[in-house]
Structures are given as C-alpha cells and as structure tokens.
Amino acid sequence: ILFLKSEDLKEDPAGVLRRVYKFLELSPVSDEKLLQIVSRRHINEQSFLHNADNGDKFKMLPSTRDLLTKFYKPFNQKLAQLLGDDRFLWDDIYHNESVERT
C-alpha cells in the first residue's frame, strides 16, 4: 500500500507522480509528460464552490477543529508509527488557527 499526503502532492506533484508510477511498477514518465500532467487545471468541489457568487472561502470552526483533532489523534499516532513517518501526526496542520479549503 502506498500512502500519500495531499500536501505533498500540492508541494511536489511531479515527485509524487513519480513515486506512484514507481510503486505501480509502471514505466517512468518523461519530464515533459509529467509537466503536461501537473500543468492541467484541477477542479474539485471546494474550488468550484469557492468560485461561486459568494466568493467566500470555507473555514473550519475552531470547535470543529478541536473535536476532530482529539478524535483522530490516536489513529494518526498509530498510522505514523506503522509507517515510520511522523508527518502523518499532522502536527503542522493542527497548530494552525483555521483551515482554508481551496
């Protein structure tokens, strides 16, 4: 099983795609093809809603963040331990005041 963080995909999409291709034992993709793939416009529900008439970004309520943080903490700790990767503790995310979904 390959576990990926969406933050890594956003930060280094070509690098993540290379990892996926390697994990799936697919032939490597040329840098030119990777550039074509990562340059495509990406649309998801949140970006669609953000561009709606209201123009508001969606922010998580602090009480919601606290609830989710407490609920998922033991699961994230176990996942980070199993994967040997502390990035899955999400400490960098939990310390932000609010989350903007883009």
Description:
The protein is flat, with a radius of gyration of 17 Å. It is 57% helix and 4% strand. With 102 residues, the protein is mainly α. It has helices spanning 6-11, 13-23, 31-39, 45-50, 62-83, 91-94; strands at 58-59, 100-101. The relative contact order is 0.12. Helix 2 (13-23) packs across helix 3 (31-39). The two termini are 27 Å apart. It has a two-stranded antiparallel ribbon with strand order 1-2.
Keywords:
single chain; 2 strands; 4% strand; mainly alpha; 102 residues; two-stranded antiparallel sheet; 6 helices
What Rg is obtained from the alpha carbons, in whole angstroms? Answer: 17 Å
Helix/strand class: mainly alpha
Q: Tell me the major beta sheet.
A: 2 strands, antiparallel
Mean model confidence by pLDDT: 79
Taken in chain order, the helices and strands follow as HHHHEHHE
Task: Assess the beta-strand content as a share of residues.
Answer: under 5%
What is the overall number of helices?
A: 6
Number of E strands:
2
The 3D shape can be described as flat
Helix content: 55-70%
Distance between the terminal alpha carbons, to the nearest Å? 27 Å
Poorly predicted segments:
97-102
Strand order of the largest sheet: 1-2
